Amino acid sequence: MASIKGYDLPSLMFEMDEVTALLAGNRMVQAWTDPALAEAARRAEAKILAVLAPAMLNEISRLPYRIPNYAYPERETHGLLRKACELRLKVSISYRDNKDRESERTLWPLGMVGWGDHWTLLAWCEKRDAYRNFRFDRILHIDCLPEHYPQHAECNLEHYITSIVGMVDE
């Protein structure tokens, strides 16, 4: 066991498929999220690689996963919205919908979904008093507000997803 700052930690023992899963997911985070989270993923990958046996490192060098750094123009928006979700901070946005109409919204950012070529914010919209989705690439301007939105049993990410699944099942 290794001792780190007063804590005893068991040695990490990974199976090859576990390492493959970790590294593939980690490299997606590096390529498709905001700079701060991408850097955290790079540091985590270095720690994972540091504990692997030489034979496993050799196998990893042959993994087929190479994820190009995606030209993702909304990287900064991603970071701001990620933090707003984590801290439960309201955001104010100017938004252009798919019919080219602009609107101003105050949102409770609940979660984010990556769809391959774009990210979507899942949020409670104060203007509509309902759940709404907002594509990052259609956000014209965003401000993080100093106000926290309340924790609510019927207005959170889990409830939102459950309501969507329920609509699909009907």
Describe the structure in your own words.
It is built from 5 helices and 7 strands, in the order ββααααβββββα. The protein has 2 domains: 2-60, no CATH class; 75-169, Roll (SH3 type barrels), CATH 2.30.30. The radius of gyration is 20 Å and the shape is elongated. It has a 5-stranded antiparallel beta sheet with strand order 6-5-4-3-7. Strands 1-2 form a two-stranded antiparallel sheet. It has helices spanning 16-32, 35-50, 54-60, 75-87, 157-169, and strands at residues 2-4, 7-9, 89-96, 102-114, 119-125, 130-135, 139-148. The mean pLDDT is 88. The longest helix has 17 residues, at 16-32. 39% of the residues lie in helices and 29% in strands. It is of the alpha+beta class and 170 residues long.
Structure described in brief:
The chain has 170 residues and is of the alpha+beta class.
For this structure, what is the CATH class of the largest domain?
A: Mainly Beta
* Rounded Rg: 20 Å
Q: What is the number of domains? A: 2
Helix- and strand-based class? alpha+beta
| Percent of residues in beta strands | 25-35%
Largest sheet: 5 strands, antiparallel
Order of helices and strands: EEHHHHEEEEEH
What do we call the CATH topology of the largest domain?
Answer: SH3 type barrels
Helix-residue proportion? 25-40%
Which CATH architecture of the largest domain? Roll
Mean pLDDT reading = 88
For the largest beta sheet, what order do the strands appear in spatially? 6-5-4-3-7
**Poorly predicted residue ranges:** none
Helix count equals 5
Question: What is the CA–CA distance across the termini?
Answer: 53 Å
The total strand number stands at 7
Indicate the overall shape.
elongated
